[in-house]
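Hi W., the S-adenosylmethionine complex you wanted:
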Amino acid sequence: MKRNKSFDKSTPLLYLVATPIGNLGEMSKRALDTLNEMDLIAAEDTRNTFMLLSQYGIKKELFSLREHNETTASKHIIGLIKQGKKVAYVSDAGYPGISDPGYLLVKEAIQNDIAVSTISGSSAFINALVASGLPTDHFYFYGFLSKKGNEARQALEALKDREETLIFYESPHHIKETILLMSDIFQDREAVIARELTKLNEEYIRGSLLELKDLDFSTLKGEMVILIHGLEKSNDDISDEVIIKRLQFCISKGATKKAAIEIVCDELKLHKNRVYKLAQNL
Ligand code: SAM
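Structure:
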């Protein structure tokens, strides 16, 4: 067991600083103050980070830590922190470690008894989930699917029975193939494409996957998140009698037939078709 107090002055500390996923107004004062205090900033792409820091008049030595050099760069950075240097890591956008480098650096820090602390910001999947209209109580973040069709299909098949909201990252180059594949596997499941989050052209496209597959994909520019409703288990073993009694009760309390159907479907987790048919004769 290891216990690390993040802000205990005697323990060396690695900062992970979240950066905006689009709108620069989301760079927090705490993030800027932290970056300003550093001796060195490690970055996924030093050119991008240089431009970001320039917007705020911050000039710091930058060091590259990206997917291809993550292991060696992590060891180097941890060495610097052990020598007493103040170092923060930023990825290109959002949180380091979330479909971005960062995990190996954190692991290396922990192994070397260096405390790790995150400076909050936005993450594309959290923004997308919160406004999606899909259940937020439980969710499963997958990130990017494999670019190889058969691997992506296998991964999606394995997620088919999960009840949590499923979340994926995707680029505009691949969105068409991915939505076609998803619609083949998940059929008419409710889904959402959230794109250009926090930017001027932010857009949420909500519908069933069978509807989304007919989109004009040339209109889907920019970065995007795909969310799919989890599997809804239906209580098919509930008897017709119980359902009819519940419908009658709702109607006797003043609900319209349509509202009663919705209430009963929701309460008893039933397929709409079945309840609708039973309500016909009431
Ligand atoms: N670290 C980032 C985070 O915390 O969200 C994710 C980085 S990952 C390399 C980039 C992917 O995140 C994009 O392909 C897209 O799926 C998603 N993404 C990033 N910014 C976004 C935005 N403004 N709107 C929608 N999706 C975005």
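The first strand starts at residue 13 and ends at 17.

W.
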